């Protein structure tokens, strides 16, 4: 609960007890009720109706990795939100994109960001990219109870590995199973279509601009075939988000840049509705 | 069995305060200075990894002198307090004033509880605001009192001399380089009014910079950047070294004042 304590106003013993550098470990000791995974679950019939986020695309390029997300959240057959953000910076060199129950996913991201920041402040050094990916695994695992009730959260984690000097992507299943992806991946309801698109367009030697275009094409293809994924909303100027992570850190492309890329892609699609074609040989 | 002596509360407290003060006075000092873009911390610290100055939260930093394990414990407690509060409410609800109050209560309870030995620490909690007049600096001595400070201050071993040195020279509109230089010069003051040699390698410098675009305003100043600020870089132009000479003249003139 609240830190400013119940009786004396001094820091409670738990705060001054030497222990792990993990904020989640501290919470589970001192304030387990604020952890999403340790909340009691009410018995419900069928799936809970809550807004869902949908397609996230991750792809590496020569200088790092890009994470792109569409902007639609759906609740059943209703569009719950048109401009939701699904990709968040986790720290300086990594970002996480979320598919699944939006409310829980956003909370999980917030806790994950804090977990990394807390470790950094306590230890005076950052976790390795592998370490960060594993922490996220643990968090998904603690959400398994809710996932079984239909409140699943499936993130994709991407970051720049400063030791290996390259971008890396990790994908997860609802049980917290983690696997490293080579080149690209996608999660969410439109991911099958996005992955098919990425398979044809992605190469290892892409530049930053090219990889952004590839990610946008894949999202367009996902929106084309999946009703729960939103395409670029030209009328309202709501475009997918693009987050680039390189050795300079994590950076979200501003609206003007994304708008230019989206418009070029859209022009192409007006000529060729199915988008760029891979050579046959 | 020996008969317990009566010790008056005044005497007991005075003894505890003296004990804590002596512990603190053994260590090197930390100085805190406001400059145009924020607050800078300068400490004499031979260790690269055991910090006296640290980040607590977005706009809040912590500096301490005294016994390392005790202030480290308080620092981690503060990080936990801030992170928990920011998580349950909002990041904007974590304030230096709130943190300083919790520290004051903690130190105060420990100081007046006969069961515990008083902490030999003196803390500074500072928060950088959107404008210089919103900056907050709190000094927390070993007994749990809080002093709201402004401009510049020093805590630790030689703080009296350093504070009087700073008072005469500090301005609120200093640039970062001027503030760091002044911090370094002030730390070079020793007890009998003389001056020691303090180099960039012995300094730990960090700042809360309100002009930083990131949400987290805390930044350490390391290696070449620090030497550049201090004008110690050999590759730097002659203008830098001449300004360095100016300031050392100033400080030698000041020595007689003690």
From TrEMBL, chain A:
Pull one GO CC term from this UniProt entry: proteasome complex
Q: Give the record's keywords alphabetically.
A: Autocatalytic cleavage, Cytoplasm, Hydrolase, Protease, Proteasome, Threonine protease, Zymogen
Where on the tree of life does the source sit, at the highest rank? Bacteria
Assembly information from the UniProt record: The 20S proteasome core is composed of 14 alpha and 14 beta subunits that assemble into four stacked heptameric rings, resulting in a barrel-shaped structure. The two inner rings, each composed of seven catalytic beta subunits, are sandwiched by two outer rings, each composed of seven alpha subunits. The catalytic chamber with the active sites is on the inside of the barrel. Has a gated structure, the ends of the cylinder being occluded by the N-termini of the alpha-subunits. Is capped by the proteasome-associated ATPase, ARC.
Active site annotation, chain numbering: 54
Protein name stated in the entry:
Proteasome subunit beta
Q: Which Gene3D superfamilies match?
A: Glutamine Phosphoribosylpyrophosphate, subunit 1, domain 1
Group of enzyme by EC: hydrolase
Query: What's an example of a GO molecular-function annotation for this chain?
Result: hydrolase activity
From TrEMBL, chain B:
CDD domains for the chain: proteasome_protease_HslV (cd01906)
Please give the pathway this protein is involved in: Protein degradation; proteasomal Pup-dependent pathway
- Any one cellular-component term (Gene Ontology): proteasome complex
A single GO molecular-function term is: hydrolase activity
Q: Where is the composition biased (Acidic residues)?
A: 242-258
The role this protein plays is: Component of the proteasome core, a large protease complex with broad specificity involved in protein degradation.
Subunit and interaction comment:
The 20S proteasome core is composed of 14 alpha and 14 beta subunits that assemble into four stacked heptameric rings, resulting in a barrel-shaped structure. The two inner rings, each composed of seven catalytic beta subunits, are sandwiched by two outer rings, each composed of seven alpha subunits. The catalytic chamber with the active sites is on the inside of the barrel. Has a gated structure, the ends of the cylinder being occluded by the N-termini of the alpha-subunits. Is capped by the proteasome-associated ATPase, ARC.
Specify the protein name. Answer: Proteasome subunit alpha
Q: Which organism is it from?
A: Streptomyces marispadix
Q: Which gene encodes it?
A: prcA
